Amino acid sequence: MDDIDAWVWWLVGAGALGIPLVVTAMPEFGMLAVGAVAAAVVAGLGLGTVIQVLAFVVVSVALIAVVRPIAARHSRQRPQLATGIDALKGRQAVVLERVDGSGGRIKLAGEIWSARALATDRAYEVGQEVDVVDIEGATAIVI
């Protein structure tokens, strides 16, 4: 055991910390693994055990203190790319069959949709462009 350099042990520790990172998906283990790699670099430079442990602690704590709050903030944000029904809201469509408060047909994003007017007293004629304001089931609500 004495003939294995300290930097190798730090790299083994980094690898060992990578296992629970993958199994539990807790990024803190990854930050500790990076701290162990930093300690391995310090050990490779020939610095003492106290400096190695200090490098491990400083890098690990710094990563946890800085990266973790940033990651938590990003995980609470909604994705900026709208998909599904959200991507259709606000788009323009062309009326294929007269659309009024009781129904009609539009061409929206290359597909034919059933539609109805938001205002029940309003009607849109064939060829007219309308804006989709909402989707209810398989029916587009237009203005």
TrEMBL record:
| Compartment annotation | Membrane
Its GO CC terms?
A: plasma membrane
Q: Where is the NfeD-like C-terminal domain?
A: 86-142
Q: Which Pfam families match?
A: NfeD
Per the record, the domain of life is Bacteria
Q: Which parts pass through the membrane?
A: 6-23, 30-47
Coiled coil regions in record: none
Grouped into one coarse class, the protein's main location is membrane
Provide the membrane topology annotation: Multi-pass membrane protein
Q: Which InterPro entries match?
A: Membrane_assoc_protease, NA-bd_OB-fold, NfeD-like_C
Q: Alphabetically list the UniProt keywords.
A: Membrane, Transmembrane, Transmembrane helix
**What name does UniProt use for this protein?**
NfeD-like C-terminal domain-containing protein
Task: Say which species the protein is native to.
Answer: Streptomyces yokosukanensis
